[in-house]
Design a protein that fits this description.
Blueprint lengths: L2 H6 L2 H21 L12 E7 L5 H16 L5 E9 L2 E8 L8 H15 L11 E3 L8 E6 L5 H15 L5 E7 L4 E7 L1 H7 L3 H11 L7 E4 L2 E4 L16 E3 L5 E3 L4 E7 L6 E4 L2 E10 L5 H15 L8 E7 H54 L8 H14 L1 H15 L4 H31 L4 H5 L1 H19 L1 H9 L15 H15 L1 H18 L15 E7 L6 H16 L4 E8 L19 E8 L5 H15 L4 E6 L10 E6 L3 H16 L4 E6 L5 E8 L1 H6 L4 H11 L3 E8 L2 E9 L1 H4 L9 E4 L4 E4 L4 E9 L2 E5 L2 E10 L4 H13 L8 E5 H32 L3 H9 L3 H12 L5 H30 L4 H26 L10 H29 L1 H4 L2
Parallel strand pairs: 7-24
Antiparallel strand pairs: 1-3, 1-4, 2-3, 2-28, 5-14, 5-15, 6-14, 7-12, 8-9, 10-11, 13-14, 13-17, 16-18, 16-19, 17-18, 20-29, 20-30, 21-29, 22-27, 23-24, 25-26, 28-29
Helix pairs in contact: 2-9, 3-4, 8-9, 9-10, 9-11, 9-14, 9-15, 9-29, 10-14, 10-29, 11-12, 11-14, 11-29, 12-14, 12-15, 12-25, 12-28, 16-29, 17-27, 17-30, 25-26, 26-28, 26-30, 27-30, 28-29, 28-30, 29-30
């Protein structure tokens, strides 16, 4: 008893299980997580270490280098990229691809241990290193809160309300803010008054440091009670700061308010800020719990927002920067529509070839297979997102291949007068094993992407998972449910005229053409080889790319002012750009991020780290068709009105990658030499008319004013370098000297000079500093000989402990590969001094890593596919025939990509790999029939021709259903190149396969063919 007979004879059980699977599949579909794009693990952690007052070079040598050495002792580390800037060291630690998200927490724990062990080696004054291991968290909901007539404090109260209440919403993982300011207590000293009274600033500092500290006064036993002792004197309001008593000479005391202005404000300068439609705002980022459903979380958040609305003052509004739940809902609806369109196309094709009964039968099996797939995808934690839904459409045509072979085989036998039940049993007995082998081969064609560990492989992994589950299930339904349905719905017509089965015009034409080619094998193969060589030559003209840009209705505008620009100047410039953008008809909203990039609201968005000279504007548009024109207008405006500013606009990316698609990394020991080489690279970049966004990650050198200390005078006055540094800090930016506790807030107390002295750098000469010897304040000019202005590197980047400067560039239009091919030989022609090296990053590196991830496992799966074909036929010649036909797909791929002007990117590469499985599957079906007929007694020539004719219909239907089912993906930016690759490659290769395989068969077995 074979499989088909088992399920046919248990009709009730089979039908019940069928409808249970259908219902369970629909239920599983409803429970699947929903995302806009598939997740991939960002295997980066930041190690942030403050070193106040140190130059970038000092940070590099004294902090960064020690931490890098410790981190690189870890075997899990792939690379360490460090950024040393004035007063701060930031390490970006990237872990090797093989460590998945399950192992990362253990890796981060080890990283913390290494950093903690190294902390004692850091110089005095360096802060405690902070390890940030949630750098890759995605805030699917990113909104702003602003109100034109409300103060910052009033807006913050609303933010605190939402943050407190929304954390309780089901599905919410974490809430962070952006642009939130820290309050501070400012004590602005009147230094002239201090000098008159002979009060050193250190006395004020000591009083402020001690006044508000928590101190333990102990307890005392009083009878049976143990009573706490707690003296008064702490400061509970800002007004009480003025009542602090400061001791002066002798036994006199003076109130702090008599020598200082005390007020409550915000820490200045603000490190980063956010504006929404030109209104100062606070950003709120909300992430989903791991594995959560962002759509359901979005619904729950909207409900809670509505409930909290009565508590929000009228006029405070929420601006939507990115609401992933809405985008996911729209994207999934669009993909579901595309899926239904693809299903309809497949059924129409089947109806045209097989009639109503056959089309309805296979259509039902197709829907059953899709529904059943969700049952297995749910526990595999596959979410409904761009890749998984696209994979279903890609697999759609292949899902019906097995059922087509079974149904067509049964239909032919029934037309010849056989009993439907026996015909079903015989067809499954004959085809089950070849179909299984062909199905496994089709799955293995996608396996390389499923086993790749890099970000691109993880991003596309659901493609393999969906194909694995759905194709496996398609074989199961083909040999179980399909035979039963054939018995139920394919009726015996009573005729046994086998001559009518394959006697249509198409069959007759194919038979004549095949006989023509079989009698002229050399000519036929010569034409095919010529076409293949032409395709190889033509492929050179196909554009290359990595991932296409997104169609998200939002642009990014990056603005870089000269390094060292104050954030207030950056904000002022941004205000002007905002005004221009808001006048554009296509622009609906503008979100400005000043000082650093935003919260990671998309997985493919990489935020820029803190820099007061940097701003990014997120521009919402109402029509994606206008984005290219708007992008060009923005860049023209920035170039015309802000010539000293580097500004460029870009679209978001689909898949891993970012701006700076072309990156030249130069490494070497001397920073000056590195900058000289980088200038040469920039000159080559700038000479290209299609280039934009040319910059380096070291930025420009910045001015540093250095007071020249008169050592002898300073010693005579009892003044040290630390005293001078402290006086300078207090005289301008302000020194943090204590903490003010207010309920759950810990506000810094900042000591600084009065405003009129802070705003003019010329006041340096008259800055008052306390002399221990003179017991009074003296002007700073008495202990310095003058001031000099020098330039220094404010940012020093290192990669794997080598100083490395990266020069970035993007193309104005077209793929980056064309521009890269132009500049690469010129850049590589630069003569590098000994000890310096050039390395290419950006899209070139990302694409190379992705292809390396594929190629690492691809040979194994190719070998498995070859072994399966050998085992299916117990032959070497037959697998060789099959594999010789596979490269013919390139003929159609080249023609299709050139005709549609689509680039050959990573997704097109996946499409080409999938073609291998499809073509082998078709070839197996054809050769299996030839072997069967020849072993049944037919001479080889007739067996070849008759087999070709008999398999024309199932192979043609399989190819057409796959190709035409891909039509909806032609209109999706992410899948369009893949769709073109599969459609054109499959159609051309199938036409050639139905001729080339029989010709090769006849050639390889010419002795038996008699010629």
């Amino acid at each position: 008893m074979n499989i088909a007979q088992f399920f046919i004879e248990r009709k009730v059980v089979t039908l019940v299980l069928t409808f249970v699977m259908l219902g369970a599949g629909i239920t599983s579909y409803q429970s699947l997580s929903r995302l806009e794009d598939p997740e991939f693990t960002i295997k980066d952690a930041l190690v942030i270490t403050p070193y106040p007052g140190a130059s970038a070079a000092e940070v590099e040598e004294e902090v960064t280098d020690r931490l890098e050495k410790a981190v690189q002792k870890m075997g899990q580390v792939k690379r360490v990229v460090s950024k040393s800037e004035r007063g701060l060291s930031t390490l970006t630690v990237t872990i090797k691809d093989k460590y998945g998200k399950e192992l990362l927490p253990q890796v981060w724990d080890e990283l913390r241990r290494k950093i903690n062990d190294t902390q004692r080696e850091l110089p005095p004054g360096a802060g405690v290193p902070l390890v940030v291991d949630d750098y890759g968290d995605v805030y699917g909901i990113f909104i702003t809160l602003s109100g034109e007539s409300y103060s910052y404090a009033e807006i913050k109260d609303v933010v605190d309300l939402f943050r407190r209440e929304l954390l309780l919403v089901e599905g919410v993982g974490k809430i962070d803010t952006y642009g939130e300011r820290t309050e501070a207590i400012y004590v602005e000293l009147n230094r002239d008054r201090l000098s008159q009274l002979g009060i050193p600033p250190s006395v004020v500092v000591n009083e402020l440091q001690q006044k508000n500290l928590v101190s333990d006064s102990g307890r005392v036993k009083v009878g049976a009670e143990f009573i706490t002792l707690n003296p008064t004197g702490e400061i509970s309001t800002v007004d009480q700061f003025g009542d602090v008593l400061i001791s002066i000479q002798g036994s006199d005391q003076i109130y702090l308010r008599d020598i200082a202005r005390i007020w409550r404000g915000y820490v200045e300068p603000q490190t980063n800020l956010i504006r929404y439609d030109a209104q100062v705002a606070i950003g709120l980022g909300i992430s989903t719990v791991s594995g959560g459903n962002v759509v359901e979380m979005g619904k729950a958040l909207k409900k809670r927002f509505h409930e909290l609305t009565p508590q929000v003052p009228v006029g405070i509004e929420a601006g939507l920067v990115s609401v992933q739940s809405d985008a996911v809902s729209v994207a999934i609806r669009g993909f579901v529509v595309s899926l239904l369109e693809a299903v309809a196309i497949v059924i129409v094709v089947l109806f045209f070839f097989m009639g109503l009964r056959g089309a309805a039968l296979i259509g039902f099996v197709l829907l059953l297979t899709i529904a059943g797939s969700f049952i297995f995808l749910a526990p595999m934690q596959v979410a409904l997102e761009r890749i998984s839904l696209g994979a279903l459409i890609i697999a759609l045509g292949m899902l019906v291949d097995n059922a087509i072979v079974v149904v067509d085989g049964v239909a032919v036998r029934v037309k010849q007068g056989e009993d439907a039940k026996q015909a079903s049993i015989d067809v499954v007995r004959q085809t089950a094993l070849p179909l299984l082998g062909a199905t496994v081969i089709a799955i293995l064609a996608f396996a390389a992407i499923g086993t790749s560990d890099d970000n691109t492989g993880e991003f596309c992994r659901s493609l393999f998972q969906v194909v694995l589950v759905s194709l496996s299930l398609s074989w199961v339904t083909a040999v179980t449910v399909t035979p039963l349905l054939c018995v139920m719905y394919l009726k015996n017509t009573g005729t046994s005229d086998s001559g009518e089965v394959n006697s249509g015009r198409i069959y007759r034409g194919y038979r004549k053409f095949l006989l023509f080619c079989l009698h002229r094998k050399t000519l036929a193969l010569g034409v095919v080889v010529t076409l293949f060589v032409t395709a190889l030559w033509g492929f050179r003209f196909v554009e290359q790319s990595f991932f296409p840009p997104s169609t998200r209705p939002q642009l990014m505008v990056d603005i870089w002012l000269p390094q060292g620009t104050h954030i207030d100047e950056t904000t002022s410039l941004v205000s002007g750009v905002e005004a221009y953008l808001r006048e554009r008809p296509a622009v609906t909203h503008v979100t400005s991020l000043v000082g650093k990039g935003g919260l990671r609201f998309l997985l493919t968005y990489t935020p820029e780290k803190s820099n007061s000279a940097y701003a990014q504007l997120l521009v919402d548009v109402d029509d994606t068709a206008q984005m290219d024109a708007l992008l060009a207008d923005i860049e023209s405006h920035l170039k015309a009105f802000y010539p000293d500013v580097l500004g460029y606009a870009s679209k978001f990316q689909l898949g891993p990658g970012s701006t700076g698609k072309i990156q030249a990394r130069i490494s070497g020991p001397d920073r000056t030499v590195l900058r000289d080489i980088a200038d040469q690279v920039r000159a080559i970049y700038a000479a290209q008319p299609n280039s934009k966004g040319i910059r380096t990650d070291w930025r420009q050198r910045v001015k540093v004013v250095r007071p020249l200390v008169a050592e002898q005078q300073a010693n005579l006055n009892g003044i040290t370098r630390q005293d001078i540094s402290r006086a300078l800090l207090e005289g301008f930016q302000g020194e943090r000297v204590g903490i003010f506790r207010e309920e759950d807030l810990l506000l810094p107390i900042i000591l600084r000079a009065e405003e009129q002295n802070r705003d003019d750098i010329a006041s340096l000469y008259n800055l008052q500093i306390w002399s221990q010897v003179a017991a009074s304040m003296i002007p700073l000019r008495q202990v310095v000989t003058g001031f000099e202005t020098v330039f220094e590197d404010e940012i020093i980047m290192r990669r794997n402990r080598k100083p490395t400067i990266t020069v970035f560039m993007d193309p104005i239009s077209g793929p980056a590969s064309i521009l890269f091919a132009t500049v690469r030989p010129e850049v590589e022609a630069i003569k590098l001094p000994r000890g310096y090296e050039l390395e290419w990053g950006g899209e070139y590196e990302d694409s190379g890593n992705a292809q390396a991830g594929l190629s690492a496992s691809l040979p194994v799966f190719i070998l498995l596919m070859v072994l399966i074909t050998i085992m299916l036929f117990n032959s070497l010649r037959l697998p060789l025939i099959i594999w010789l036909a596979v490269p013919l797909a390139l003929i159609g791929v080249t023609a299709g990509l050139l005709a549609t002007a689509q680039p050959f990117g990573f997704m097109a590469l996946l499409g080409f790999l999938s073609l291998i499985g499809m073509l082998i599957k078709n070839a197996i079906v054809l050769i299996d029939e030839i072997v069967l007929q020849h072993s049944g007694g037919k001479d080889l020539m007739n067996a070849i021709v008759d087999s070709g004719v008999s398999r024309l219909m199932p192979v043609a239907m399989a190819a057409l259903t796959t190709a035409l089912g891909m039509i909806p993906l032609l209109f999706d930016a992410f899948f369009s190149a893949m769709a073109v690759t599969i459609i054109a490659g499959l159609i051309f290769a199938t036409l050639l396969t139905m001729v080339v395989v029989p010709v090769l068969y006849a050639l390889f077995y010419r002795d038996e063919a008699g010629g």
